[in-house]
Amino acid sequence: MNYEVNQEVTFFGRIDQVNVSTYDSYACNVTCEDGDKVIVRIPESGEVNVNKIYYFETLAINFKDRIHLQASKFQPIAKMDLAEEVKIRLMQAFYTYAPFDLPAARKEIEEKIAQLKSPEIKLITETIYRKFADDFYLYPAATKFHHAYISGLAYHTYSMVKLADGYLKVYPFLNSDLVYAGIILHDVTKVLEFDSYEGSEYTVKGRLIGHITLGSNEIAITAKELGLENSEEAMLLEHIILSHHYYGNFGSPKKPNIAEALVIHFIDDADSKLTVLGEELEKTKTGEFSQPIGVLEKERYLKHKYSK
Amino acid sequence: MNYEVNQEVTFFGRIDQVNVSTYDSYACNVTCEDGDKVIVRIPESGEVNVNKIYYFETLAINFKDRIHLQASKFQPIAKMDLAEEVKIRLMQAFYTYAPFDLPAARKEIEEKIAQLKSPEIKLITETIYRKFADDFYLYPAATKFHHAYISGLAYHTYSMVKLADGYLKVYPFLNSDLVYAGIILHDVTKVLEFDSYEGSEYTVKGRLIGHITLGSNEIAITAKELGLENSEEAMLLEHIILSHHYYGNFGSPKKPNIAEALVIHFIDDADSKLTVLGEELEKTKTGEFSQPIGVLEKERYLKHKYSK
Amino acid sequence: MNYEVNQEVTFFGRIDQVNVSTYDSYACNVTCEDGDKVIVRIPESGEVNVNKIYYFETLAINFKDRIHLQASKFQPIAKMDLAEEVKIRLMQAFYTYAPFDLPAARKEIEEKIAQLKSPEIKLITETIYRKFADDFYLYPAATKFHHAYISGLAYHTYSMVKLADGYLKVYPFLNSDLVYAGIILHDVTKVLEFDSYEGSEYTVKGRLIGHITLGSNEIAITAKELGLENSEEAMLLEHIILSHHYYGNFGSPKKPNIAEALVIHFIDDADSKLTVLGEELEKTKTGEFSQPIGVLEKERYLKHKYSK
Amino acid sequence: MNYEVNQEVTFFGRIDQVNVSTYDSYACNVTCEDGDKVIVRIPESGEVNVNKIYYFETLAINFKDRIHLQASKFQPIAKMDLAEEVKIRLMQAFYTYAPFDLPAARKEIEEKIAQLKSPEIKLITETIYRKFADDFYLYPAATKFHHAYISGLAYHTYSMVKLADGYLKVYPFLNSDLVYAGIILHDVTKVLEFDSYEGSEYTVKGRLIGHITLGSNEIAITAKELGLENSEEAMLLEHIILSHHYYGNFGSPKKPNIAEALVIHFIDDADSKLTVLGEELEKTKTGEFSQPIGVLEKERYLKHKYSK
Amino acid sequence: MNYEVNQEVTFFGRIDQVNVSTYDSYACNVTCEDGDKVIVRIPESGEVNVNKIYYFETLAINFKDRIHLQASKFQPIAKMDLAEEVKIRLMQAFYTYAPFDLPAARKEIEEKIAQLKSPEIKLITETIYRKFADDFYLYPAATKFHHAYISGLAYHTYSMVKLADGYLKVYPFLNSDLVYAGIILHDVTKVLEFDSYEGSEYTVKGRLIGHITLGSNEIAITAKELGLENSEEAMLLEHIILSHHYYGNFGSPKKPNIAEALVIHFIDDADSKLTVLGEELEKTKTGEFSQPIGVLEKERYLKHKYSK
Amino acid sequence: MNYEVNQEVTFFGRIDQVNVSTYDSYACNVTCEDGDKVIVRIPESGEVNVNKIYYFETLAINFKDRIHLQASKFQPIAKMDLAEEVKIRLMQAFYTYAPFDLPAARKEIEEKIAQLKSPEIKLITETIYRKFADDFYLYPAATKFHHAYISGLAYHTYSMVKLADGYLKVYPFLNSDLVYAGIILHDVTKVLEFDSYEGSEYTVKGRLIGHITLGSNEIAITAKELGLENSEEAMLLEHIILSHHYYGNFGSPKKPNIAEALVIHFIDDADSKLTVLGEELEKTKTGEFSQPIGVLEKERYLKHKYSK
Hints:
Six copies of one chain form a homohexamer. The first copy, chain A, is an alpha+beta fold.
């Protein structure tokens, strides 16, 4: 993009990097809605956050023979009163989204909650789900590794629900209430583990406590408030949360000791790996091996002639 | 059962134990078709095998104040010309069977083979399947651990086929031919690893080579005979066999490096554990923990109030 | 003790074993206050618990040429209205006690709480301590392994407090509030993990959730009720609880990430091992090696000539 | 080397690197027979392989002020009809060779085969050896790690044969036929695992199947063709191949279960490490430590005053 | 053997077990020179050691309807002045010996020492060898595991020397002085680690310090006494001793960092396993698998048709 | 610092790096007493050591347009006859010191030795202490990792002595002589493991033998010279040295098997970690996490609001 000195420029943009300097303003690398890259200068007193979308009002200036945009106004869109379609347009322009039908997923997940037969399981699950629902459909499932994009958490949960259908058919001794409620709750406190849904970083709480214990706490507090603190249902759901990573060195203080917890571990593990694998194979040419895949012990996978 | 001395007794029975002694005959613990336990004395020159069904013609004798049945004739039913329904009746009386609908499973498995789209995959799979089909529906999947009963191998394979349906729906990048062919072939050489379908023991070949390499060899030999020794299909199927236990210390010389091999590993692992878990929970009272389960790292599982 | 048939015998005793039989009563091995062993027969309809103290009213009978005491009345002392000094006498007669000055320990622990400087840490700690204080001074620290006797939990906590004094002197960057509060709370939910203070067994909740997560839940609930759910203090205390076993395979979902948590882990680990070691050496002759010690990787320790 | 523009230059050279660019030709780094380095430009339509020797006919051109050689003809020597002594001269000029007397090694290895006493072992070993013999004396034993030079495979095999002589003298219970045949066959399918003997890369088959299973397949196929598929000899040789890396995580699906397999593992392991160690010490000054040695757990070895 | 009451019985015997009782004498199970088993009663005041040979003068008595031999005199042969051939006869009657030609081994080992070229290595090696030579040819190499019989230490050392010959031929960079001296010294302090050559038990020093450090100390002390405490030779020999078990969890505080130490580790490891394997196969029938072998990770080895 | 060409410059400086070149002198990066950095050129024939302090007499020259100082004289201060206060001034200017009161520590350590009750323990400890005392108060405790500064070894030992006081109060079965003597001796041979107290590198002896075995050797030699070679005291002290790293893979050939050795391991481990942790937290801002800490499994620690 070519601006002339003194031109006024107004636009939405995502801050990619903030460069602190000895000048009385600092330079931010900003991506515009059409993909262009510009340098925006923010006054030293201002505060901006990487990976957030801002509305900028700027003036083009000459800075060491290059055009920089000096911001007179900069406002995060989260604090603006924008039309819903504008918000969606901006989000889609600036962020990567999980590749799935979000409304269909939400419908399916809420139907599963509605169909829970045990009143206690339903009450606990619904209460926690409602508390976090807004963030649940925005947050990623990880800051890196698997499902690290907007709505990754819901995408992952939805795939697990679908896989669970198959397991419940083959193994009739499994209780479907615990399986579906466990899946829906298992990662829900990741919204507390990360500081935002875009460009997530771990919070201090996320690092010191972690989403597994935060999930367990959430059930304990909710059960207490619902008068269910001594219920078997609260205990079983809490156990599912605690054990879904299976091994202690992956963060689980308990191994699964009920069948439903074991199945949820299998499904969680399989989905977190297969989704990444599918994405990596897409980037690989037929007849070649993928890059080493972190979640798959750094193995490289062949894209063979039958790979789609 | 009370026999009188000198009474002639004729019956089918399964030999449970052979006790060698200093007498000129040895005493066998035998279970009769109605569950009764008797002692049958076999002449020193005879040879009988534990866990096989025999037809006995005997005479009741007094042996140290107890009634023993002195065998004048004993013949394994495998060498007799019995009507099919008699054979089935005897098998069901004396052995534990996998708890599934075998004809339905056979139909499903053979349909999956018939529906394979790749001519090379179909040719290799069908050739090997036909070679082993008779034993495939009789052998267990293990001598102990998971699916250790008659037809356990087919039962396990059938459950895996059903689980695969679900995975193929959720992950469209997977090739269904490789998944179904891989599942059907993955354990087929267990019929060479064990010495018989009843009361199986490992053969020397099973111990020195193992079903994984035997399966790999089978594909290599079959591919060569079909002129497919340099085909990508033979290589991919062989890789699936080799890698289905994932880790070297569980017998796999290669980790999965194609997506279909990884999925088959997940499904194999899940089914071998969940089937045992279901059986153990059946033996457990509600509110109590199961015995430590070998295939599940000796963990005990709770039969909670929602367990069926 | 020799009783005559038809003699009436009344006494306090601890049930050591319950032998179920085909008779309409079952035989219990019971230890009397003076150490004698008797057989007490309880009607089939009765219910007694191993390791509890009962008051028995019995009649001596001849049972297969031995004297058994047929109980007409049997009542657990926990449900009786006994004078405090009688209770203490009975407890000391029948149970093993931690070898320490309990009132002094209680005084010291409560002083440490009283001296906490941070109002938030003090509030959380005091609230939880008061809730569990009665059981805290009765429960063991484990069902086997270290401090497996009455008051073992308090004994262990008290020793840790004393060791902490030394560490705080050498490392001035440590915060004493977090160290003392963390020590006092670190194992307090063991009173929920075990079903009773005498002859403890793990509860279902203890097995599925565990004292580490139960402790974390307790802080989360308490902090919420005190309006401190977003306080750094609650988070730090919870982190200390979560990380005090250090490794995931010992039950900690997080490794220590604050200095005070690391010190508490060191002190906890040292005390749980050294206390057992001291007890084992007491049973060993000078110049010989102890039995293999479970908590010390089954090593045998030499009682050398300088060992006390 | 200094060429003038328009000079015609004809020579043999080894391609070291191919640099793709936006020009209609790409620049290759080429080493000449006398060690000189030149840049050869190949037309975009041409195809050349790194580490292979080519015959070049070129014209010197000026390319950005440097002399490049524009190739009008380039032909891999493998496709030329060169005299044997020319081929040997070129191979020795361009490649690193194993430091041993190859004809002596070949003579020794073929004598060992000729002296095999068991007709079955001899037949299987000779058949496979003849099939691969040409490549066997050219291929390296690895792409990196141990014996990674031309004829490395034969050099390694020959050293193992010599070490075996010593073991057979000390342990008379070992069968020499199995030891020698096993050594000769143990790595022979490395010629299938690598794509060429010079500058080897792993083939897809090498990565998905691996030389251990390929060796096992080779014996199975050969035994079948010789009518020895059920022979104990084929099974024992296959077991030796499968187990020679000992541990699953080093690629062996079975641990050694016959004495000869164990000895071959010891000898294989020792030679692969000691040969590298000797080479590393040669590069080290007396009194100093070598570089960390990959095959020796990254340990550094001292070249002491007695090291030769 | 049948003795009559009051018969005087005089004989040599090995004490197999000492049974302490409440009588004023205790009963010892004793094996006689001809293999017979008798009970000898020793006065309470006497002291006897298991697995040692004694000369007994006894009187046959009736003890609870069995014949016991009441000892009036019992003397360990180590304290008697017996002719050399009598001692040898008794040792061979009562103990298991290593199956090798001891004088040949001693000759070979001493020749290796005599041929050491480095004066420093020779001086250190000879000094330590002479100090321990008597015990060196009597002690076992272990109390259980490998070479656990009289002269096992010398047998093991001798086999290692023979294997070393082969390695020195194949790898000319190895220094033969360090290899032979290292082998001869590597286990020599096992004579301090065990309390006697017959029926060895670990000494307290053996358990707290161990033969590896004792060997290192021996070299350090010897070097100091010879004025060689700062010599490279003493350091290299000490390093060989320290590293011959390779891994820390097998007792080596350092991994090998000179080539000779690595070779000695290989040879030590191979001989300790192959010798046991040979002995186990001798006890196994052709076509069967051996018992699980402790030193070989509990693997069972097949005695195949070519096994000798 | 600005020098003019031909200016004579005389100063003390620490050599930070020696750059070898093709000129007849090489350039050294030198830090001056006031922190300035200069380039000093040393004649090719000279020999200087990195991290040592030298006295330089130089002439400023122009070297490729920069000022270098051509040395006509350079002498390590260790070989100069300087006043004590000058030496101390220089040491403090050029090196990092352990942050503790060294004279107080020395007094405390020597008092502990003076108070040892066992004559044998005292004699051995005092003899070794005196032999190494000068270096003991100068050497670091490591070349990197924990206590890697001048006097680090004494600082570490002193902190351990203070922690020991606390343990001895809580666990009365511990022998204070062994604990204090063990602490004082446990790392003393690090003065042999490193080549100097400033800028330490491992010596060859340090790498091949290590301070643990060197410590054991020292006790063995000392005990022999004192006539205590068979004393229990020498054995116990040696065992403490050998086992203070606990695990074989951390260099200990024996795990602790006496109580005092276990306590010393605990204290050593805690101090080596907590000291580093304190230093890292000092560099960290409140509310942030430290850098990953090597001795703490690369964990990052939070500097929370209560951290000092």
